[in-house]
Amino acid sequence: MKQQGNILLLSCYELGHQPFHLASLSAILRQAGYAPVAVDTAVESLTDEAIKRARFIAISVPMHTALRLGEQLARRIRAVNPQAFICLYGLYALLNAEHLLQGTIDAAIGGEYETPLLNLIQAQEQGSTLEIPGVYSREASSGPWIARTPFIIPERQQLPPLTSYARLQWGDEIRLAGYTETTRGCKHTCTHCPLTPVYNGRFFAVPVPIVLNDIRAQVEQGAQHITFGDPDFWNGPTHAMRILRSMHREFPELTFDATIKIEHLLKHQHLLPEMRELGCAFVVSAVESLNDLVLQRLKKGHTAEDVATICDIMDQVGVALRPSLLPFSPWETLESYLALLQFFEDRGYIEHLDPVHLSIRLLIPPGSAILDAPDRNEWLGKLDAADYTYRWQHPDPRMDLLQKQVAHLVEEGEQCKADPVETFFQVKALALAMQDQPFSVADAVQHYQKREVLPHLTESWFC
To answer: Which of 67, 255, 328, 434 is the most core-located residue (most Cβ within 10 A)?
Structure first.
């Protein structure tokens, strides 16, 4: 297994970033004496020759879209190299392991994947069939491995250059963007989040020197901006700020973005002015909805009023807030969806949104905490294992129809690079049509005053 190419590490999609989950695993394996080959199939070709040479193939599937692509890739690999051992690793691999193991893969790993995957490779070398903690296979159904990873600096030399990935756009300026993580897991247990059934409220801090060395390596590759991809950058605010201060001292021109809960932005708002001074271009926050019943069901830890407060604070501080949304769930109503749109229109926040967020529908993977919702019998259907989600129907049929229409509209808009403001008002027109209310998109676009290019990544956020 230690010859070059015996181990093949594959990524399918990591939100337009250079794949951290390949870089981290590659470093661990190289430290153990292996010579893995890493291929990011999102931006480079995977040859049949590379597949045939491999004895062990690990495919990173940290999210739903990546899993869909990863399973397709596994089928191709099985056809080209029937003898290869195929392992999917990441949150969605473990949640959907039972289905995946009925098809083309041999093992699935979730949680802190590096140690179990290394142990699995070593077991394959030795021909061992013993159960390996953290590895879900046909022979054993181990749960996630939630223990501190022996973190080392990610290995990025084999990965495509940063020029192959999403960039930061800020006004007329375009900057190369890197990506790293300062923590793993999350101390919160939002019911719709795939982290909840895997990490169950646990998180681990990556040592400061490891993070800073990873940033240095990307700056050497030309990075002018860093995305901190933690599920929540302020799970450990002291840790996060220590990293930012060190980064800014060494690279004062380097900008960054991070994902932070509304709850944490409120609690630690005193840190926001310093965040701006340290180079924060924008903050992503999972607003999800402005319907307080929805927020309660999702256990988000904030209210609609909190969102309005944070919008005011972020405007005063001068850091752009980019909300992520989950506007189609069993508890959203047509009225609250329209109120959500009106909120962003009234605040002049349309440019803060990626239009795709107006279409996101709740996914309920196996093991999801949503399955414990008290009213689930009113809307929950059967598991569609092939689509990695439980089916559900909204109590108001208009909402399911609207979601399909909005999804189609924003997808078309993305493909033709449509004006996001115009797309927003087209979505509003669709929603108002469900109430038989007329609406002129052209008039709304003409009268919308605030038009500016806020800092954002050139890859829209998808899950």
So the answer is: 67
